[in-house]
Design a protein that fits this description.
It is a multi-pass membrane protein. It is found in: Cell membrane. This is histidine kinase. Among the domains are: about 170 residues, GAF domain (Beta-Lactamase, 2-Layer Sandwich), CATH 3.30.450.40; about 130 residues, Alpha-Beta Plaits. It is built from 14 helices and 14 strands. The strands form three sheets. Strands 2-1-5-4-3 form a five-stranded antiparallel β-sheet, with helices on both faces. Strand 9 and strand 10 form a beta hairpin. Helix 6 runs antiparallel to helix 9, helix 11 crosses helix 12 and helix 12 crosses helix 13. The radius of gyration is 55 Å and the shape is rod-shaped.
């Protein structure tokens, strides 16, 4: 099944739309519930306050009506007033109590003469819980045994001057007027409001659910589906997919980030392809270089590779000897005059440190720094003069533990030489090509000598001894021999066996990270010269280098050390080859 044919099967309860809707509904439910409850409580409180005020006014009106009848002690009028008031629809009960709590007048005449137990009646406890009950007009709400709620107004009857004829002046309160009001209508209003608010909340939640779900399905889902579809295309390797960005919301930002990611992936993919092409080209050239017959053939192959395989339009290959002399070996895309100018620039880097000038000058220090970078095997961009020479890359060629030259790159097709990946690529090329150039250079030097191979070997050893003496150091000579050379010949023949030895020596030289020279002595042996390296360290270095070779050659080793084993090249060589070759 192709990735593009795959459709995600997401359960409804697991979908983003469902989760978003549920969370929103829960949030709305909590907010609306709190709001509705608060609204109902405030409404009920406000209605009760209004009812309490009206009850107080009614109670004061009744007390005012009873005042004259009480002053005249006209019980018939008092009973008539109480009977008239109690017949009102909103009045549940009315009583007049004396100071001791005995009922003097009541709607129900059978209650007259009874005393109220203020310790058991909840409405009485509210005021009489303290030692001195308050004297102001109070209203309390209590629940009857049948569950209905009553609003009771307790209005104290004060002992006024008109009452002193019948009551002791020291008595402040003569009794209390209790008027009970029905609040069924008020409760019905509260219940009605509660129902309306609940219905409104439910309608709001359902409407919000429908609107949110519709918006998410109509607006969000298509955009997410489009994003998912393009991600699947990308997973298939289609990096040309692109999402059209609309608006400035989070989905638009996500789409833009997706487009940025695709562009980055495309660039990375192109970079990997170019690197793969580079590695393939280097591998192919390395295979050809192993069969090259001369140093000049090596140079031409490398230049062709740089130009045709790696799109380098302008470059040079330079050799640097021990004295700092620079030799132009080849170039591409430059005139002879420009190539010579590049050689002079590199040569100046090595010559300027010998000049009797002040090292404080910034331009002199900069040039010396570039020379140090070359000797340090660092790939870097050298600054041009802005006129004759533009900025260019210098990639040192290091082999045998020393820098033997450099590749300079001045122009690359469709690329900027200042890009870090370009320097990395050139560094890989220089590292891969250096061993072959080194071997070719050694072969060229040997071929140019007007002496026998043995004399050339002695001369090479003696030259390295003299170099070691300059630094008051020693010199290690390691002779390596292919122990199973005869077996290799039987398997693949003499020509291929000899070629395998040659390839192995190239690998060994590349793996040795010290200054050295490697010279083939016979079909199955070679001499490795390591100046300023102790004998034990030299053996360890050569052991590790041969162990890293990708072949089935079994090597034997024998060593000699200057000056312990002799002071002349012949003595050192004799010690290393005695009873070995």
């Amino acid at each position: 099944m192709k990735i593009a044919e795959w459709e995600p099967k997401i359960k409804c309860t697991k979908s983003l739309i469902f989760k978003t809707t549920v969370l929103l509904i829960i949030g709305l439910f909590v907010v609306i519930s709190i709001f509705s409850h608060t609204n109902i409580m405030l409404t009920e409180k406000r209605l009760l306050e209004i009812a309490s005020n009206e009850a107080s006014k009614t109670s004061d009106a009744v007390k005012g009506s009873l005042k004259n009848a009480m002053l005249s002690n006209n019980r018939q009028v008092i009973d008539s007033i109480i009977s008239t008031v109690s017949n009102e629809a909103s009045i549940e009960d009315i009583k007049i109590l004396d100071i001791s709590g005995q009922i003097k007048y009541a709607k129900d005449s059978s209650e007259v003469g009874m005393s109220l137990d203020r310790t058991k009646i909840k409405s009485c406890n509210i005021c009489h819980a303290s030692a001195v009950p308050p004297r102001n007009n109070l209203t309390v709400i209590f629940e009857k045994t049948d569950g209905s709620k009553i609003l009771r107004n307790v209005n104290p009857i004060d002992n006024e001057k008109e009452c002193f004829s019948c009551h002791d002046q020291s008595q402040k309160v003569l009794g209390k007027l209790l008027v009970d009001f029905k609040i069924n209508d008020l409760q019905n209003i509260v219940k009605g409001n509660r129902k309306i608010l609940i219905a409104s909340a439910a309608a709001t939640l359902i409407t919000a659910l429908i609107i949110v779900a519709a918006v998410l399905v109509i607006y969000l889902k298509p955009k997410l589906h489009n994003l998912t579809k393009n991600i699947r295309k990308t997973a298939e390797g289609n990096y040309d997919t692109h999402i059209k960005v609309k608006g400035q919301d989070e989905i638009a930002v996500l789409s833009q980030e997706f487009n940025n990611m695709i562009n980055a992936i495309k660039q990375r993919d192109e970079k990997i392809k170019n690197q793969l092409k580079t590695f393939t080209t280097i591998y192919d050239v390395s295979s050809i270089l192993k069969r090259a017959e001369s140093l000049q053939e090596d140079i031409m192959l490398i230049l062709n590779t740089l130009e045709m395989g790696l799109n380098i339009e302008q470059c040079t290959i330079l050799f640097i000897d021990d004295t700092g002399n620079v030799e132009l070996k080849g170039y591409v895309g430059l005139t002879q005059e420009d190539a010579d100018l590049v050689r002079l620039v590199i040569e100046e880097m090595f010559e300027i440190s010998k000049m009797p000038v002040s090292r404080e000058k910034e331009e002199i220090k900069a040039v010396i720094g570039e020379k140090d970078k070359i000797l340090g095997d660092e790939v870097f961009i050298a600054a041009g003069d802005g006129k004759l020479i533009r900025d260019f890359i210098i990639a040192p060629l290091k082999a045998g533990g020393r820098v033997i030259g450099a590749i300079t790159v001045h122009k690359i097709k469709d690329s900027d030489i200042h890009a870090s990946e370009i320097k990395d690529t050139i560094s890989i090329i220089a590292t891969a090509m250096s061993p072959y150039i080194h071997i070719g250079l050694c072969l060229e030097k040997r071929a140019s000598m007007q002496e026998s191979p043995f004399d050339a070997l002695i001369a090479t050893i003696q030259r390295n001894i003299e170099r070691a003496e300059q630094y008051q150091g020693g010199l290690s000579l390691i002779i390596i021999k292919a122990e199973n050379y005869e077996d290799i010949i039987k398997k693949i023949g003499t020509i291929k066996a000899s070629d395998n030895i040659r390839k192995a020596l190239i690998e060994i030289s590349a793996f040795i990270d010290k200054v050295h020279e490697i010279i083939r002595m016979t079909e199955n042996s070679a001499a490795i010269i390591l100046p300023i390296v102790a004998e034990s360290e030299a053996l360890d270095i050569v052991h590790k280098a041969t162990g890293r070779c990708t072949n089935d050659i079994v090597w034997q080793f024998k060593s000699a050390y200057y000056p312990d084993d002799g002071t002349l090249a012949e003595e050192i060589l004799h010690k290393a080859t005695e009873k070995f070759l």
